[in-house]
């Protein structure tokens, strides 16, 4: 998803700031729970894809900057500038590997978007306002709407973006990909969870008469018989637009 945005949407005006259609955004977000790989199409709406990425980061159980390190990062927003880079490096090293990899990849993308701010109108300030509260959410949900806290969260993300190479090195993306491939090699991913089964449909009396062959019922048989309609496209909810996107699941 990050790679798709980098290749096709860094020059889209208002990327990440303009909202896409709600239904396809939520649909794409939900695929993250069931699919290891999602194949995006060239003509997909960049605002839908950007919105799904934001929604995913916002809804993760533990944000990229984890709750146990939240205060460590927030303290850097008001710390001495001459010490901030070294302390940010130390703080980022404490993150779980997967969180650090995604943070690096995301911040790299955001810096690429910043390079085209004269076209996409996404200044540094716009970017950190959008992503700051998602990347490092307040441990107490009731405190997350405090504007002073949001300002500090944005300041932390600003520092990470401005000092990206000082914190993560000159070519961190190549390092992340190598580490990730090594991790997958040593820790094969478990099969994704299956989607919940569709509800069983109990037919009406008329449907029973039409679809069930005549059968003799023993008077001693007290268990009623039901007809379960197969779940297929005829009986499924409206899925217009869903067949457009191919999904590949690693088994």
Task: Describe this structure in a few short sentences.
The chain has helices at residues 2-8, 22-31, 46-59, 70-76, 81-93, 97-114, 117-120, 124-135, 147-162, 164-168, 172-186, 205-211; strands at 37-38, 247-248. With 251 residues, it is an all-alpha fold. The chain has one domain: Rho GTPase activation protein (Phosphatidylinositol 3-kinase, Chain A, Orthogonal Bundle).
Account of the protein in words:
The chain is mostly helical and 251 residues long. The chain has one domain: Rho GTPase activation protein (Phosphatidylinositol 3-kinase, Chain A). Helices cover 51% and strands 2% of the residues. The protein has 12 helices and 2 strands; from the N terminus they run H-H-E-H-H-H-H-H-H-H-H-H-H-E. A two-stranded antiparallel sheet has the order 1-2. Helix 2 packs across helix 3, helix 6 packs antiparallel against helix 11 and helix 8 crosses helix 9. The chain is globular and about 75 Å long. The C terminus is likely disordered.
Q: Any idea how many domains? A: 1
Q: Which percent range describes the beta-strand content?
A: under 5%
CATH architecture: Orthogonal Bundle
Euclidean distance between termini CA atoms: 21 Å
Largest sheet: 2 strands, antiparallel
According to CATH, the homologous superfamily is Rho GTPase activation protein
- What is the number of helical segments per DSSP (H or I, 4+ residues)? 12
Say what the CATH topology is.
Answer: Phosphatidylinositol 3-kinase, Chain A
Which residue ranges are poorly predicted, with pLDDT under 50 across at least 5 consecutive positions? 216-237, 239-243, 246-251
